[in-house]
What we know:
Blueprint: H1 6-38, H2 55-63, H3 68-103, H4 116-130, E1 142-144, H5 152-162, E2 171-173, E3 188-189, E4 195-196, E5 201-204, H6 211-218, H7 223-237, E6 259-262, H8 264-269, E7 287-288, E8 302-305, H9 312-319, H10 326-333, E9 337-339, E10 342-343, E11 355-358, H11 362-372, H12 457-476, E12 482-483, H13 489-499, H14 506-521, E13 528-533, E14 539-543, E15 554-556, E16 559-562, H15 572-575, E17 585-590, E18 596-600, H16 601-604, E19 606-610, H17 613-628, E20 637-640, E21 654-656, H18 660-671, H19 681-687, E22 697-701, H20 708-712, E23 723-728, E24 739-744, E25 747-752, E26 755-761, H21 766-779, E27 784-785, E28 816-819, E29 825-828, H22 839-850, H23 857-864, H24 871-888, E30 912-914, H25 915-926, H26 931-943, H27 957-960, H28 963-984, H29 988-1001, H30 1006-1018, H31 1022-1038, H32 1048-1060
Parallel strand pairs: 19-23, 19-24, 20-21, 20-22, 22-23, 28-30
Antiparallel strand pairs: 1-2, 3-4, 5-6, 7-8, 8-11, 9-10, 12-27, 13-14, 13-18, 14-16, 15-16, 17-18, 17-26, 24-25, 25-26, 28-29
Helix pairs in contact: 1-3, 1-4, 3-4, 5-11, 6-7, 9-10, 12-21, 13-21, 14-19, 22-24, 25-26, 25-28, 26-28, 28-29, 28-30, 29-30, 30-31, 30-32
Amino acid sequence: MTIPAPHQAGRFASSLLALAMLTLGVPITLVSISQTRFGSGNPLAGAKFPWNWSADGISNALSEPLSDDSVLDIVIRSSLCVVWLATAVIVVSTAVELAHMIRHRGLSMPLVRGISWAQRPARFIAVGLLVLIPVMSPRTSIASIESISFSPAQAAQFDDQSGSVPGQVGQVAGDPAADPAQSPSEITNDDSGTPTVPAPSVHVVKPGESVYSIAADLANGVESKTIDIADAILELNLNTVMTNGHRFSSPAYIEAGWELSIPASVARRAPTTPSTQPTPTDAHDELTTAPSSGPQSPDAALTHVVQPGDTLWGIAESVLGEGVEWSRIWEQNAGADMGGGRTFDDPNLILPGWELSLPINAGSTTAEAHPQSGADTTSPPTSTSDVAPSATATNTAPDGSIPATTAPAIINMSGSSTSTTEPTIAATNQGGDGSDTSSPEGDAPASPSPIRLEHAALLAGGILALVAVRRRQRLRAAMPRSRVPQPPEGVVATERRLRTIDAGERATRIDVACRAAANKLIETDSQIGWVRASAEGDVELRLTEPAELPAPWEGDGQQWTLPAGVPIELLSESARMVAMPSIAFVQIGVTDSGDDVLVDLEACGLLAIEAQPVQADEVVTAIAAGLASSLYAEVAHLISVSLPEQALLGHRNSHHTSSVDAAIELAVSLVGTTLTDERTSFALRSLRTGGEVWEPAIILLRSDDDTDQIVTNRALPTPGHGLAVVAAAGESGLPTATSRLLAEPGGWTFHAFGSSVQLCPIGISQADLDDVVDVLADAAEPLDQNVAVLDPGETPITAESNDPAADSFVEPAHEIIVGLMGSVTITDRDGNPGKFERSKTVELIAWLATHRDRATRSGARTALWELDVRDATFANVVSEARRALGRLVMPPDGEEWLARTLTEQLPIHDAVLTDAQLIQQRLDHARVLPPLQAVQVLRPAVELIRDVPFAGTGYLWPDAEGITSNMVLLAIGTASELAAHALSLGDTEAVFWATGQGLKVLPGHEELIGLRMRAHARAGDLAGVRQEWESYERVIVADAWSDGEPAPKLLALRRDLLTSA
């Protein structure tokens, strides 16, 4: 019998004590309180229940004030009842949890919404009670490591590693048939024919983890797989002696620091949670061959599944023996379809999960390279994400046989250090535009290439916001019947790239968090240096000097975190008291975990980008574009020398100089006395001193610029006083730089404010920059002035027309209406909505209804999904669309709302129309009608306008293709024409209603505002004219990047209306 460890006995005792307190201590205490107060153990003793109330008693209770004793009794009785109820729920939850753990081998129940507060203490008690009562269940036989046969290279490698691992008991399942986690295809034979199995990978238990939570991570959240994976982990580890000498005897109890073996097949099926141990670069390589019943072809190739942190250089080094052989892997895989709609066309970018074909001699090279390696195989890599140490290699011999080259994972069990890995972007010597600058031998550069726009959520969001502002400015000045020209395909593709990543509410959360923190830093010498924001909502601040921040901030000194669970509303009061203190805030990169890293360039002072010139220039270009599209930096001065003016995206405060000295001199003159002020610009903005914004000047220098002038120039102030410099310094660096973004062999590191952050910076190549400029130019492209011109032979209808059929409007035949003028709806003619299980089904119908001339299957798939979607998924969406439309309205005999074809075409029935089509048809008909009849025709059309087109959706295609803008123009054009006709008839109420409908879609539209001002003037309401003008001014001033200048025609109209009165 195994003697339990003292801590296990203590854990059992604590759970037993908690159970005793819950079942005895709490009830005795509650009964004692009730006995003392009410003379009975029942907290409701002496209380009158509702069925005993009388009308007189209720009347007296409501008319007379309650005594203090009565109030106190109510509070005590209520509290006792709540505690009794909570205790009962926890006791029942404990019993259920205990039964579940016994039935399911120690796995706890999933948390149930509403009673999770009771499940947590119940789980604590149940786990402790099971610590000394191991759950019995059939188990597979466990063979010792000595019973497994290895090749000489493997044995030497394993002996070298295991010799440095005291106290570790290595165990491998010996019977594949008995191990459900191990498939026969995973077993190989050595030269003697003895079967060998892949070595399991290792997961180091972290505080708070359980077998169930580990299995859930491995299953990627798929519940159906979680139990199977948990059983496989228990089969491999239960009753094993762990590294601290304690036996894993209870499935419900594991300790932090234990090393659990993860079956190799499980690790491959669902990559394990990264280990925190240093692992050799060759330990995480995963080499597999497809199962074969016979000899393999000499042309067969091994495959490598890309792991987080892999690079082509690293794979080649561990698999082929030399990193310079990476070009062979690239040549073998270039242009291959990696799944999910991605093609391997850039050696700079490889993603976890991709399967790369390896040259035929990869397996033998690996087996030979391992025993000969004299390097320290346990030295940790240099990035921030861990590697799952799982390896299985199989090689094909020239004669077609398959010799065993299976190498066990080499694991460092010391647990003395934390492992990190390289970023997932391969290090190859290429520029961002795809040009290959590597030598024929395949020399790789010292660092990965920067990531691109579509991976930078905040930068992409800023550019899209700038596009939206330019579009609004263009649409506000549009005349009725204008049209947005069809954007080029390249512009559509670029905008879709930018829209594929969504920053969510990160920007708002960062803004409020920074202003709230600034409110507490005003009286200190500290300011915010950098911000790290996760997709989950955590906001981490690095301060320039130690300071104290109150709750809900967590941390100390210079490092503070706002947890994701803290509502931003808790900081709103503090944030409202200060202005945004960091105008030169810009995103510089993304960490391996997907966190956005933003830096205050003013706090940095001089930021040196120390990398190869091409990469450094791309990073500087991205920073420039980030500043130019930032809402914070709207008032900042951006100064360049050789940086292309395009990179500043038409920023109104951009400046171009001839030299670095001239740039510094200009920056000093623009910043003025802020350079010598005792307070930092951060503190001055926080105080809102004098209404000034204390605009900074940021100098942006490329590698072509003479950065040596920075070193010799004495005008640069201390950081935080309104002047910042970003310089591509090359690999030699700048000795005077106070902050550095350093390109290293394993990745990039940002050094500033006494800390380091490992990240992958954002870079914009010249090709990417041209694409962004094209999108911005297209957003400001003049509209097509589609002035209504009568067709040949068509005569306008006059008010005196006697033809009763001339002004009649016959609505086109339709049975289903796809509502796009607002949130997307699908209804029948009577307004009854359809029921759809998938949101993609509604989007598909909306896309088909707006693309009748090119409604193809491939077009729909490309528009609706960012990546290539499975045929079955698309077929299910199409099938549901047919069924749901058929349930809404029966289709005509022999027809379907979505026709079945044998071609690429996917036509939608002519009786399915959009509300935009109905509006357009009424607008077209009304153009030849006199005012009274035109009002009658247009009013139903304007009633269809509910909100901004596609409101509340995240569709990628409407904005990029110009559909949204054209629908906005259709709405305001229809509203303008109805209002104009109503004004000519003297119906001011109709004017205000029609223009109000149009302003729902586009606030501040000049034509609509002008009609409202004329209606007020006609009614003699000059105050109304002024009110409309003020509302218009508020709208245009609120726009980002707006100069607040009103339209000249509205300015002249206001003057005429007010002076003529």
